[in-house]
Design brief:
The protein is of the alpha/beta class. Helix content is 42%, strand content 12%. Strands 3-2-1-4-5-7-6 form a 7-stranded mixed β-sheet.
């Protein structure tokens, strides 16, 4: 692969790209990689994305004139994707609703009761901002037309990040920092809507909208037919203990999707690939039972390597203060990704290619060659072969920490065929 692009494995490029920059998410990858892969393909190529996230692959495909289809297991991100893919929004209707929202704020502001709002929100937003945000939210959720409800929901979600007392996604709430210029929520909402409309006006007309489903890619999506897609471009969750449910809890609480830790577990984490130790109960895992799972049976040659790492991580954890069960996390992660790869193989036509942006990891100083292991698992799931292309070295900025390993990690592209 002749690839000369910087920042492939992060969303830095997306911050300057129309529609991609409507919502800034902690995790992500560059839209330029999608553009690179698509540049010489026939326009009847259908793209599959099992981890739609905030829509990088789907939006890029739609911009380039390709039809794409994807799954997203998290309701919040699913709605963000749908808003980004709907370019039918009309300026005059947006302007009308903004004028209505302004009137509602004027009427309800003084009497609006914050006592029923989630305590986390009252901690993170001052009274003026939170009242304004909640009144706008209530107006949005009352709209009957889904396209505009999703459009305004995304715009207000953007504003939530810019009006909190503390930064709320770095990747977690950063209570030791204070956000500057966090006032004027209505004005920021209006300017966000205006900028979004300008982006839509610049997009090609008569596009074929891409499709995203609220679905867990570990499970068969019957709405996507066998052998219906020609390529997959994605970036799965890394094996790095990032809890996506926790990352987005401020917004999911605000929109009423969740209200507590238990809600995040039952409504968010259960629909996602196991990528953090918060996704499971350590006491529920039994290695002997796991070794009889379809994943373990169909990856028999790989199991000795996984068991060796499992034991090393478990041993090293005894000397760490956190004593996190990264050894169990690793097993759950690869088991989940095996099921994702089975579904990927099902929806792809024979001889189709897939590109996965991945990162290696080293929990408690035990190196896990994640990309290579997933390549081997992909072969067991029905792919013919794989190749690995290194993007960059990663993890070096943390070497000064006393409890940090000194193992050099890499970010890679895994090509499956």
């Amino acid at each position: 692969m002749d690839l000369q692009l910087e920042n492939i494995g992060c969303a830095k490029d997306n911050m300057k790209s129309p529609i991609h920059n409507w919502y800034r998410f902690t995790a992500g990858f560059s839209y330029k990689f999608v553009d690179y892969v698509l540049q010489d393909l026939p326009k009847d190529t259908i793209i599959y994305e099992p981890f739609a996230g905030c829509g990088t692959t789907l939006v890029s495909s739609q911009k380039q004139g390709f039809y794409s289809v994807g799954n997203e297991g998290q309701e919040l991100m699913y709605d963000i994707c749908r808003a980004k893919l709907d370019w039918s929004i009309k300026k005059e209707i947006v302007d009308y609703h903004i004028s209505q929202i302004k009137e509602v704020i004027s009427k309800e502001f003084d009497s609006y009761d914050l006592s029923e709002e989630n305590p986390l929100l009252t901690e993170l937003y001052d009274n003026y901002n939170l009242r304004t945000l909640c009144i706008i939210r209530n107006y949005i959720t009352s709209l009957n037309e889904e396209s505009y409800r999703l459009f305004f929901k995304l715009a207000l979600s953007n504003v939530l990040h810019r009006t909190s007392i503390h930064p709320i996604a770095v990747p977690y709430i950063s209570r030791n920092k204070t956000l500057k210029d966090n006032g004027q929520p209505f004005e920021k909402f209006v300017s966000t809507c205006t900028n979004m409309m300008k982006d839509i006006d610049c997009q090609p007309k008569g596009h074929h909208p891409s499709q995203v489903y609220l679905h867990d890619s570990r499970v068969t999506n019957t709405q996507i037919a066998d052998s219906s897609c020609s390529m997959c471009i994605t970036s799965p969750p890394y094996l790095n203990n990032l809890d996506y449910g926790e990352v987005s809890k401020v917004l999911s609480h605000f929109w009423g999707i969740t209200s507590s830790w238990n809600d995040i577990t039952s409504k968010v984490r259960t629909n996602l690939v196991t990528g953090a130790t918060t996704h499971y109960k350590e006491s529920d895992f039994d290695l002997e039972s796991f070794l009889h799972s379809p994943f373990a049976v169909n990856n028999e040659k790989l199991m000795p390597q996984l068991i060796e790492m499992f034991v090393k991580i478990k041993t090293n954890a005894k000397n760490r203060s956190g004593k996190k069960s990264f050894h169990i996390l690793m097993m759950h992660y690869f088991n989940d990704m095996y099921n994702v790869l089975l579904e990927m193989r099902r929806v792809l036509k024979p001889k189709s290619k897939s590109y996965l942006i991945l990162g290696d990891s080293a929990p408690y100083g035990v190196y896990i060659p994640t990309t290579q292991i997933l390549g081997d698992i992909a072969v067991s799931a029905g792919f013919n072969e794989y190749a690995i292309y290194k993007i960059r070295t990663r993890g070096t900025k943390w070497t000064s920490l006393s409890n940090r390993h000194n193992i050099e990690l890499s970010e890679n592209i895994l090509e499956l065929s």
